[in-house]
Amino acid sequence: MFSSSIRAYAEEAVQKIVKIFAIEENNTIVERASTDPLFKAGVNGPTHLSDSEIGEKTGYKVTFPQTLNSGYSLKEKCLGLYLEKDISLNLYDELHHSMVKAIFDDNEFKN
Asked: How crowded is residue 106: how many other Cβ atoms within 10 Å of its Cβ?
């Protein structure tokens, strides 16, 4: 668990990023602005919801097997939220908290 002062310091440091180095498809490294759309944002977190509760939340029938190949057992289920559109680091910083909250809070998810 991180202290709130360390978390605030880290968030402040990330907000000061103005340039990012990215690898292009041809494997060249280029300098890009933090306002350029570069990321597909995604967050996830563990859940203790039942399969039917997850199904209600997602709108799909969900069934997690209790065991997989040769006796591997299910230890944890996670819910995730991902955006298909590339977004900038700046926009990700703005959306991240709401995205995490939306995983666990249906009201936030609807907003």
From this structure: 10
CA distance 95 to 89: 10
Q: Beta-carbon neighbour count of residue 97 at 10 Å?
A: 12
The predicted-structure confidence for 64-94, as pLDDT tens digits, reads as follows 888 888 788 888 888 888 888 888 888 888 8
> CA-CA distance, 53 to 48, in Å (whole number)?
10
Give residue for tokens 């909250």. 101
Cβ atoms of residues 38 and 47 within 8 Å? no
Residues 17 and 109: their CA atoms lie apart, in Å, by: 28
pTM of the model: 0.58
pLDDT in tens, 24-35: 788 888 888 778
Q: How far apart are CA 26 and CA 16, in angstroms?
A: 29
Please answer whether residues 101 and 108 qualify as being in contact, where contact means their C-beta atoms are separated by less than 8 angstroms.
yes
